[in-house]
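Forum > Structural Biology > Help requests

Title: Can anyone predict the 3D structure of Protein AmbD?

Hi all, first post here. I have the sequence for Protein AmbD but no way to get a structure on my laptop. I'd be grateful if someone could post the structure tokens.
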Amino acid sequence: MGWVTEHRSALRAVVAEHGSVLVRGLGLGDVAEITAVFRHLAGGLMTGKEAFAPRRTYADGVYSSAKWPPNQPMCMHHELSYTLEFPGLLMFACLTPPAEGGATGVADAAAVLSELPPELAERFRREGWLLTRSYNDEIGASVAESFGTDDRSAVESYCRANAIEFAWQPDGGLLTRQRRSAVVHHPVTGTPCWFNQVAFLSEWTMDPEVREYLIDMYGADGLPFNTRFGNGDPIGQDVVELLNKVYESRTAREPWQAGDLMLVDNVRTAHSREAFEGPREVLVGMTDPVRLADCSPTIEVTAR
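Reply #1:
Sure, ran it for you. Structure tokens for Protein AmbD below:
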């Protein structure tokens, strides 16, 4: 803790310059110590909203990694990039490294944007991207886990205030749609960044057997999440594969060791979680809230 106190400004300066930093040798050994470090580094920890998968809460603003099958990677994405306010800084701390795999990879979002085919990048600039979600009690995050309540009027109020279209289903499930910019400008540097979860939350990133099972059970519109072009057109498998190929070409990774601390600029740098074997416990904190409206989005979003 003493080292972090002494070097807080320097750590933040490194993140501002390079987009992320991994600190090794701190020996962070328990939840209380990690929580104290997160709170010291942060101006205040954020409470997650609109989660796509459940998380364990260790303390106010301190969470587990998203509960995701260990044999399936979490592709590159920017945390909460589909919300109107998202964290500017992510903090990760490793309590238990996995036996194999499980690295949190990082990729420069400006470099990724520059490597996309110009016509594809321009379409996403012009149209943005659309996230569709289907909430039920069996797959993915529940309404209560995502919105912090299962009270219908409260959920509806949140959706209206956050430019989310919604429709309740006869079985009590909820369908939502939200259109967002796929390209934003960094709130400090103004650099254009590929900032979204187009590939990660796509049906084409799912394990093929899982995708087929979910479509058989719930139909194509009943997938827990999916992405489309901003005008509603489907995004083909070829586009998603291209995005993931570009991400991979720009990915840096380092296997976790117990006690590691990683800081990530959430706008400038995408992150992933690779498949792993054995127990893995990485804690997450989010801070420095950024409003989408302050990132020169390429499409206009109007809350109701």
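The domain at 1-304 is CATH 3.60.130.10 (Double-stranded beta-helix). The first strand starts at residue 20 and ends at 23.
Shout if anything looks off.
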